[in-house]
Design a protein that fits this description.
The chain is α+β, with helices and mostly antiparallel strands. It contains 17 helices and 23 strands. The structure holds adenosine-5'-diphosphate (2 copies) and magnesium ion (MG). Residues 280, 293 line the site of magnesium ion (MG).
């Protein structure tokens, strides 16, 4: 690309912490930023963090953050020359990437063809097999008849996992232990998938009983340079969604790391990928690993990689999108020290992780060295059910895993979201669990150590709330509200950030 194609103004088609994150880097690069907000987000900081901001109105997501035409229209009217989609929302919609290009704008992400190929679990697995990268044994065929799927499940061997082909965020996924459970599980997975992705195609996979989730960050430019930025381990999950991520993984030896990163590069080279992406792998106890899926966007947990490599992933995304060459070669990149991220959610870990809502009375500040808080809220903001319940990400860096853990734990003492129920104390309990220290981080961590992760002392959040109520002496403060009772499927209602 020519020099005059340098990006001058970026519209960020997202909200919250990631919108702020993208704006920060753009500003550092001397690029103007444009943010979007809805009627209920007038006081959110991402609105004012940019040079300009536009109101998307109100109503369901399809009328706001998922309204492709409205967003492209705003970008054209305000003279933006590029759109950054963040994560979730339109980030993995190939139709959006295509429309952005057709409008003469730069999409900060891979080509629509790459999104199409890798965004679907079924088509990506077929491609991956062609490239000679191992994927989990399973059935990815077109025949969706129940009797056929049952036959295939027997061939794979129970337990099997039914997955929505278009799936994401843990939705449309069911474990099946025997044939008797199959019908109900299939119907449930299809219902959920249709609801969330308007597509009920499923695939079957062998269920790996003690896996770890290891993913490789990749970065490629438009000149055929393909690099990896090492691994992140994201095994600690609830509802198949990550809550703690770290790099390096305590389970990955240098030899395993080189096999995994080699497999990741085989994929990016094989599909001629451009931009940032993540190759998710499942690691089995015997050291074998399988391709799980590829996320063709910036990942929620990218700060962990930034802290161990010293790179700015958003900057690299912008550079690559405007046609620059990657400013480094593979051997320049080193994994230095250890970084851990925890996701702070407005939810109740003692009540099946049900999302909660409320007004944030006060957010604590951390003075602990080498920590970073990526947060989409300020004091006084209201957390509603309209969006994902993630409040912030807290990331720490240390020379060793132990020192990163200690710093994160200290910082968590100070990062308090007064006014609503959060998972902060739960995250602290994870960090202090002996099994975490030993690196026994399998995907069933939360279930396996359920007893050890229960509160041992009076709930600190409750104590804090009592103090807050006293300090603020506010009439309207009624404490944390539980928005769903246990029998409703709160997570299904939160269709939130995935493509609908
Ligand atoms: P994965 O990328 O493995 O699916 P992530 O936890 O990174 O897992 O994200 C799950 C999905 O939910 C992704 O589509 C992500 O973009 C979206 N998501 C998660 N948290 C948020 C958030 N706070 N704001 C917007 N989208 C989110
Ligand atoms: P999503 O798009 O929702 O992120 P993934 O396919 O990435 O879906 O899977 C999410 C999580 O589900 C994984 O991180 C892992 O914990 C679990 N999982 C997925 N596939 C398997 C499998 N075949 N066996 C065991 N666990 C799995
Ligand atoms: Mg995934």
């Amino acid at each position: 690309m020519q020099k005059n194609n340098k990006i001058k103004k970026i519209l960020i088609a997202n909200r919250g912490e990631i919108a702020i994150r993208v704006s920060q880097t753009a500003k550092e690069m001397g690029i103007k930023t444009v943010s979007l907000y809805t009627e209920e987000e007038l006081n959110l900081p991402h609105k004012s963090y940019s040079d300009e901001s536009y109101n998307l109105g109100s109503g369901p997501l399809k009328d706001t953050y998922l309204n492709q035409d409205k967003i492209i229209d705003i970008a054209k009217k305000c003279g933006a020359d590029a759109i950054h989609p963040g994560y979730g929302f339109l980030s993995e919609k190939s139709s959006f990437a295509k429309k952005v290009k057709e409008a003469g704008l730069i999409f900060i992400g891979p080509s629509p063809e790459s999104i199409d190929l890798m965004g679907d679990k079924k088509t990506s697995k077929i491609k991956i097999q062609e490239l000679g990268v191992p994927s989990i044994p399973g059935y990815h065929g077109d025949n969706q008849e129940m009797s056929h799927l049952i036959k295939e499940a027997h061939k794979i061997g129970f337990p099997v996992l039914i997955k929505a082909s278009a799936g994401g965020g843990g939705k449309g996924m069911r474990i099946v232990f025997n044939e008797n459970e199959f019908q109900a599980a299939l119907e449930g997975a299809k219902r959920e998938a249709l609801n969330a992705f308007s597509d009920d195609t499923v695939l079957l996979e062998k269920y790996i009983t003690s896996p770890r989730h290891i993913e490789i960050q990749v970065m490629s430019d438009q000149h055929g340079n393909h690099t990896h930025l090492f691994e992140r381990e994201c095994s600690i999950q609830r509802r198949y969604q990550k809550i703690l991520e770290e790099s390096p993984s305590p389970a990955v030896s240098p030899e395993l790391r080189s096999r995994m990163t080699e497999a990741a590069l085989k994929i990016t080279k094989g599909i001629n990928y451009e931009g940032a992406g993540t190759i998710e792998l499942i690691l089995d106890t015997d050291g074998s690993f399988y391709f799980l899926e590829m996320n063709t966007r910036l990942q929620v947990e990218h700060p962990v990689t930034e802290m161990v490599t010293g790179l700015d992933l958003v900057k690299l995304q912008i550079m690559v999108a405007q046609g620059d060459k990657l400013p480094y070669i593979q051997s320049d990149i080193k994994q230095r020290g250890h970084a851990i991220e925890v996701r702070l959610y407005a939810e109740d870990p003692d009540n099946d992780f049900l999302p909660s809502i409320g007004t944030i009375k006060k957010i604590g500040k951390s003075s602990v060295r080498d920590t970073r808080l990526d947060c989409g809220y300020v004091d006084g903001n209201v957390v509603t059910i309209s969006f994902d319940p993630m409040l912030a990400k807290l990331i720490s860096w240390g020379e060793s895993r132990d020192s990163a853990t200690k710093k994160l734990n200290l910082a968590l003492n100070e990062i308090l979201f007064l006014g609503l129920k959060t998972n902060r104390d739960y995250l602290k309990r994870i960090l202090t669990l002996p099994e975490f220290k030993e690196g026994l981080t399998f995907t069933h961590f939360v279930k396996t150590y359920e007893a050890g992760l229960k509160p041992k002392e009076p709930n600190q959040e409750h104590l804090a709330l009592a103090v807050a109520a006293y300090l603020f002496n506010s009439q309207e403060m009624t404490g944390p509200k539980q928005i769903f009772n246990k029998t409703t499927t709160a997570w299904e209602n939160l269709s939130g950030f995935r493509n609908i």
